[in-house]
Amino acid sequence: MSQTVHTEVAAEFRPAWWLRGLHRQTVWRSLFGRGPAPPYRRERFETSDGDFVDLDWFESESRTGDRPLVIVLHGLEGSSRSNYVVGLLREAARRGWDGVAMNFRSCSGELNRLPRFYHSGETGDLDEVLASLIARRPGHSIGLVGYSLGGNVLLKWLGERGDKAPESLRAAVAVSVPFDLAAAAYRVDHGLGWFYGQAFLRTLKEKALSKARRYPGFLDPDEVASIRSFALFDDRVTAPLHGFANAQDYWTRSSAASWLGAIQKPTLLINACDDPFLPAVCLPRDAVARSPWLTAQFTPRGGHAGFVEGRRPGAVTYWVDHRAMAFLDSVVCAGGRTGHTS
């Protein structure tokens, strides 16, 4: 397959003038970006280790029999109900795609069964779900879109699979990815992302304490309750539960930046340089320049999974939804032969 090396392209995102600043972009979509609740059809997917993940389907009204499918992965402590997931699925349906949001373990509104959770480097569930959906829809084109933690999972999985990635998977888009997990953890504990980190920490600790009550000896409830930083949670909870020596081992082995060079599917990376969760210096510009499969759109502004456009609050559009689906459309229409922008 012939490819052309792609470097960073010019930014097309035009942020809303009344949402100046990274926090306004980030918070606006989180708080106000919700449309009507989508008519999801839930499917419980049983994993090979005896646990489950819930899939929420949002299907196009198109009656054609060969509709492509987009699989969406949410971010840390998100779900299929997160506004950015709903927006992407609505844009996919408008373009004639079927869509399914995969809720990571413990994120669908019901705690998972086993004494474990999900994390930024857990790719096994995505692998199982994707294999099942491909078997059910032979010959259909599939695209992947991941946000934040879900984008890290997506990129790591693509790197792990390399040239063995399924043929029917045509392309992927990763949005607001914390490419360097150690730098991201420091940022949410000490920098511009502190407020968000504390919000994540609260719900993560609640889940961990619920598991500790269900599984005596699973965790020390007093130790969990005393955790005050994101890095410490990764060190005392995430790492030991999922087979890592410590937080640094988890961050090193799971960061998407380490896997970008092995990706062999057309993949678009979308990050804002003012993302409160990741310093702009951590954006993988060199990896993009070296890879024939990666296209980057690193915009000066946009916050974290925000990318809000519009002349006034009542006339808002979310650029990233259109950009992601336009990229997937362009690759599918080209038969999976190109990673160009559109």
Give the SSE string: HEEEHEHEHEHHHHHEHEEEH
Principal-axes geometry comes out as globular
As a whole number of angstroms, the C-alpha radius of gyration is 19 Å
CATH superfamily of the largest domain: Alpha/Beta hydrolase fold, catalytic domain
How many domains, in number, for the residues? 2
Summarize the main sheet. 8 strands, mixed
Mean pLDDT: 91
Query: For the largest beta sheet, what order do the strands appear in spatially?
Result: 1-2-4-3-5-6-7-8
CATH architecture of the largest domain: 3-Layer(aba) Sandwich
What class, by secondary structure content?
alpha/beta
Low-confidence stretches: 1-11, 337-342
Give the termini distance in whole angstroms.
Answer: 20 Å
So what's the CATH class of the largest domain? Answer: Alpha Beta
Q: Work out the helicity level.
A: 25-40%
- Count the strands? 10
Strand residues, percent: 15-25%
The total of helices stands at 11
Instruction: List the quaternary state of the chains.
Output: single chain
